Predict the 3D structure of the following.
Amino acid sequence: MYVELTRTRLRALGRLAMLALLLTGCAADASAANAKGAAAQVGGVPLTIAFNAQAPGPAVPARFLGLSFEAAALTQLGGYAERGDLVTLLRSLGPGVLRFGGITSDENVAWSEGGAPPPWASSTIGPAQLRAIGRLARRSGWRVLLTVGLAHYEPQAAAAEVAAARRALGPYLQAVEIGNEPEAYANHGFRSPPWLPQEYEEEVSDYREVIAARSPGVPIAGPDSTGSGSFMEWGYAEGLAQAPVLLTGHHYPLGCSQSPSIEALLSPAMRGREQKSLETYMAVSRLTGIPLRIDEAGTVSCGGVPGISNTFASALWASGYITQAMADGAAGINLEGNPNNCGGYTPVCAVSPAAAAAGRLTAEPSFYALLMARSLVGYRPLPTTLTGQGEPNVQALALLGPRRTVKLLVCDYEPSGSPLLDLSVGVGSGPRRAQVLSLAGPGQQATAGVTLGERRVPASGSWPEPRRLPAASVRGGYVSLSMAPSTAVLVTVTPAAPKRRALTDRAGARADARQPALGAVMRMTFQPAFRGARK
């Protein structure tokens, strides 16, 4: 590989850092390859990543990561405060937000303090269950976002539940949501059409008045909408009418599709739609000045689809979407789960009734995406763009941290068997070290065998990052490494401790000048070698 620095462009673009990704491609005739058993012609496909190190965004919030469960699972998960591995699993992710809500908070679960539950309820929660959740929060360090039901209009019951939650959780009560996906109430028969945002806000105001009488100052979040499609109307109305501490909404890229696929989930077209969705969410956030949290997210709604939601593909998708949300300035994201359904969209679950009874939860593929993202918390996203011929099925985000440390997360969504991805990153003059944390699996369809840093999450639930990670080559101011397809890598480039010394000769000065700064532009040419036929 030959690298040439273009000095005129360096002067023109100043401190815009350009990274060159060179993806080898194969243009092979399948029948000829099979007949001859040899490689066919190979052509290089240049891809370029650029990031602006001089324009970092706000730091990723401390509690950016989270999990979400149905209200119906609250009793079960509260029991894991004293047994099982849930506490350890949560601690492995660092401080986060645990949300209880979903459709069961409106349709199935009622508040009860010992009396007969309403006829519509199939289960109840009461003070004892909230105290158990309080113990889980204190032991894990996680806060709780609680949804109270609105579909069945019972403001007094909601006020009693919030008062009990405040006593049980104290400072660990992040906020209270009133109703789940309220814009769909008319579709589910809970309200008569037309059901408008103004009507919803009137009912929320009624709830808030009763809640405030018993629990003054409890923070409110909402509107917990189905997705960004309705958020410009419903989210903006919520921001104006309620001034919540947090705007909330959901995201399921494949919706409740009749024919979802991994190919669609990981396609460039899907990432484009997701970017537009986040832009809508964040536009409302900026208009109202209220932070936005994607408090429920998964691959396919309606419980997920086995063969998609429980595969390594879900980990690749989650890695990309989490970083996309970070780059756009979201306040956080909660991946939806079900502790009793390992075939759906869940980061953790029990593989059997016996495991559920004991609280033995298993880390599913999407949990590894959360683990990978935890080290990005506190870092500042940098404006990052990727350009190339066609629509490269690659995603990247650079983030800036203390002491000019740069983290670069790259996701290669190409299927297994595709060519390797050769990555070259300009990191500036002076000594640097680069370490690589890799998220990998046997294939996009795999439901087991996922690793992070070549490690699986053990039965204990504790996953400390390896002390020693593979090093990437650092030469002449560039970091170089190769990525396998269907993987994600987190490259951490750390400057060495500064050393003050004078250059003693002209040769030393010329060598230092040839090394690119963290704002250099480079043009690269590449003579690709055969890496294997693209499937």
Q: What stands out?
A: Residues 1-45, 501-517, 519-535 have pLDDT under 50 and may be disordered. The radius of gyration is 25 Å. Residues 268-288 form the longest helix (21 residues). The first strand starts at residue 2 and ends at 5.
